[in-house]
Amino acid sequence: MAGEITDNRGRGEARWSWPSIHPEGRKYGLIVAAISLVFALLAWETAAWPLGFLTLGVLAFFRDPQRVVPQGERYVVSPADGLITLIQKVEPPRELVLDDGTGHPGLPAGPVTRVSIFMSVFDVHINRSPIGGTVSRVVYIPGKFMNADLDKASEENERQHILVERSDGTRIGFTQIAGLVARRIVPFVKPGDILAAGQRVGLIRFGSRVDVYLPAGTEPRVLLGQKVIAGETVLADLGDQPHIEGVSQ
């Protein structure tokens, strides 16, 4: 299905398939599987069975399913699978605002809407670009490993900022944040790379969060408590400021 064009009028073809396992996770799955096999050969079934199930869990964590990315100049798609846990007006991170000496502008100063997506260990952890454009900035910052669901995790946890700029000058910044269990942010991109909307940009191991900073004048189309899907859920329409209410049921 990769690369196929589909639409809302029935064009294209859809079929279920097993998701692939990202190469970053295959080595961990093989290590746990090998240990499980050793215990099984030694007839230590008490340890072999749990390790066998752990192997399946590790492979599931690193699954990398295909996604159908909505195409539209105004769409900002979700960079992560997970739960919308925070929607707040904040100042964007200073690392995405300050002049970094490269000649590429950062985000404008001033309050913007931040949408925070919490990823549990059961979510897909491959992150994707919210818009198409050129990667103008990647900034890694070491830090703590507090619960990624906390507001202050945006400023105190280990994190990586990514800034993507479109050809028309629109810039979207987003931040991968490590959590209590997550201990490594793995980037797939570097400054100068050209991305399509929904293209894979990195992953965070074992539970974490991604913050998206929408441009001024743009409000999200998602609600607190909503589940979103990386590369598929439209977080916002650029320049649109809808007021949407939801009901939990």
From TrEMBL:
Subunit-structure text: Heterodimer of a large membrane-associated beta subunit and a small pyruvoyl-containing alpha subunit.
Keywords attached to this entry: Cell membrane, Decarboxylase, Lipid biosynthesis, Lipid metabolism, Lyase, Membrane, Phospholipid biosynthesis, Phospholipid metabolism, Pyruvate, Transmembrane, Transmembrane helix, Zymogen
* Reactions performed catalytically: a 1,2-diacyl-sn-glycero-3-phospho-L-serine + H(+) = a 1,2-diacyl-sn-glycero-3-phosphoethanolamine + CO2
Q: What does this protein do?
A: Catalyzes the formation of phosphatidylethanolamine (PtdEtn) from phosphatidylserine (PtdSer).
Q: What is this protein called?
A: Phosphatidylserine decarboxylase proenzyme
Q: In which pathway does it act?
A: Phospholipid metabolism; phosphatidylethanolamine biosynthesis; phosphatidylethanolamine from CDP-diacylglycerol: step 2/2
* Details of cofactor binding: Binds 1 pyruvoyl group covalently per subunit.
Q: What is its main location?
A: membrane
Q: Which family does it belong to?
A: Belongs to the phosphatidylserine decarboxylase family. PSD-A subfamily.
Source superkingdom: Bacteria
Compartments in which it is found: Cell membrane
Q: Name one GO cellular component term.
A: plasma membrane
Note the InterPro entries from the entry: PS_Dcarbxylase (IPR003817), PSD-A (IPR033175)
The PTM entry states: Is synthesized initially as an inactive proenzyme. Formation of the active enzyme involves a self-maturation process in which the active site pyruvoyl group is generated from an internal serine residue via an autocatalytic post-translational modification. Two non-identical subunits are generated from the proenzyme in this reaction, and the pyruvate is formed at the N-terminus of the alpha chain, which is derived from the carboxyl end of the proenzyme.
Q: Give the modified residues of type Pyruvic acid (Ser).
A: S208
Q: A GO term (biological process) for this protein?
A: phosphatidylethanolamine biosynthetic process
This chain is encoded by the gene named psd
Segments spanning the bilayer are 28-61
GO function term, MF aspect, one? phosphatidylserine decarboxylase activity
